[in-house]
């Protein structure tokens, strides 16, 4: 076993995204459409979900097997998971981990931000798709106002968490909100990142026409507030970074559809039910939960992690256009693996 293990396309495993729940307090229409995720929807039963201790145990083995340094906690909505701060405490104790981040819709942050920071969370990415209250209430499917998220952003900043924002851009939904969002957050101390709408899962009715490309997003902003590209912070960073010409404020664009970055994709995902998922668009994951619960030794689990990674050849986004007429391909839902 080597901490320098590479997959079949030569990519190392550098970071791990951990989904701590498949449940969410919102029903964003591009992620968990309310008609699909309704009151009859069968979420994972509690016993199928990894305990916090199991998550920490498996994470420790990922660190030992692959030398991972970065973790991101996600969901569903991670702050819906009871005692998630205890998980951060456990993860922060793992030798070798130097960065723990969380992606959240922000609504529960006013309650949790200080504690999360105190136990070792470094950064949060908060999702917000527009500032128009009526539209936002519609998009999130739960009639939650923009104010709730803005309060979450403030509480994260106050707690000293490094804060970024994600805005999913979908044509016909919020391309007109690109500029208002860019203007509003330009001097706010948080970096706004625009995400091309992706065909994750099978529930959101994705069509290529819905995608507003990186090029288009760039030109909308650039016309009013000129921006220039800047270097990536590190190899494999998913957002293309830009800075405004008239100051040093930054924005990012994540172009998973029109300019895929599979060749440097070094992230694995651990689903809430303990599957190792090697691509956001995978049909299924590889079980680690039952293996762990059946008494597998640490060495056996590390060997499994290594062999799964070494067998990986995923490059869905680079091949996407070959798949678009095959919408029947089964894919894991975003709310299971967290983006
Ligand atoms: N509930 C948390 C949140 O919304 O931040 C974490 C989980 S959510 C699945 C993670 C990120 O994926 C969010 O920023 C969300 O906007 C983004 N996302 C969800 N569905 C998407 C899609 N179809 N295309 C692009 N991004 C998507
Ligand atoms: Fe929930 Fe996040 Fe999906 Fe919205 S994007 S439904 S907040 S998991
Ligand atoms: Fe990585 Fe799969 Fe996304 Fe390509 S499509 S960047 S392999 S998660």
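^ Assign residues to that structure.
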């Amino acid at each position: 076993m080597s901490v320098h293990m590479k997959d079949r396309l030569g990519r190392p495993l550098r970071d791990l995204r951990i989904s701590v729940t498949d449940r969410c307090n919102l029903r964003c229409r591009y992620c968990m459409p309310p008609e699909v995720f309704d009151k009859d929807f069968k979420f994972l039963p509690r016993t199928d979900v990894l305990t916090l201790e199991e998550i920490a145990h498996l994470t420790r083995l990922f660190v030992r097997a692959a030398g991972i340094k970065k973790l991101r906690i996600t969901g569903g909505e991670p702050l819906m998971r009871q005692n998630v701060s205890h998980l951060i405490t456990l993860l922060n104790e793992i030798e070798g981990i130097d960065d723990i981040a969380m992606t959240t819709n922000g609504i529960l942050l006013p309650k949790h931000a200080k504690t999360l920071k105190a136990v070792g969370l470094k950064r949060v990415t908060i999702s917000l798709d527009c500032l128009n209250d009526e539209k936002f209430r519609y998009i999130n499917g739960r009639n939650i106002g923009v104010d709730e998220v803005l309060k979450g952003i403030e509480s994260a900043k106050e707690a000293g968490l490094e804060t970024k924002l994600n805005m999913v851009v979908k044509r016909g939904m919020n391309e007109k909100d690109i500029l208002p969002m860019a203007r509003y957050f330009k001097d706010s101390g948080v970096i706004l990142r625009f995400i091309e709408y992706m065909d994750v899962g099978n529930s959101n009715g994705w069509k290529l026409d819905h995608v507003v490309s990186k090029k288009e997003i760039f030109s909308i902003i650039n016309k009013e507030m000129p921006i220039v590209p800047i270097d990536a912070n590190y190899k494999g960073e998913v957002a293309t970074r830009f800075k405004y010409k008239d100051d040093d404020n930054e924005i990012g664009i994540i172009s998973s559809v029109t300019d895929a970055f599979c060749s440097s994709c070094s992230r694995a995902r651990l689903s809430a039910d303990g599957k190792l998922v090697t691509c956001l668009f995978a049909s299924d994951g590889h079980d680690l939960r039952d293996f762990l619960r059946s008494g597998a030794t640490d060495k056996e689990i590390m060997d499994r992690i290594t062999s799964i990674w070494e067998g990986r050849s995923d490059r869905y986004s680079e091949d996407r256009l070959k798949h678009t007429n095959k919408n029947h391909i089964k894919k894991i839902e975003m709310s299971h693996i967290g983006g």
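The chain has a mean pLDDT of 94.
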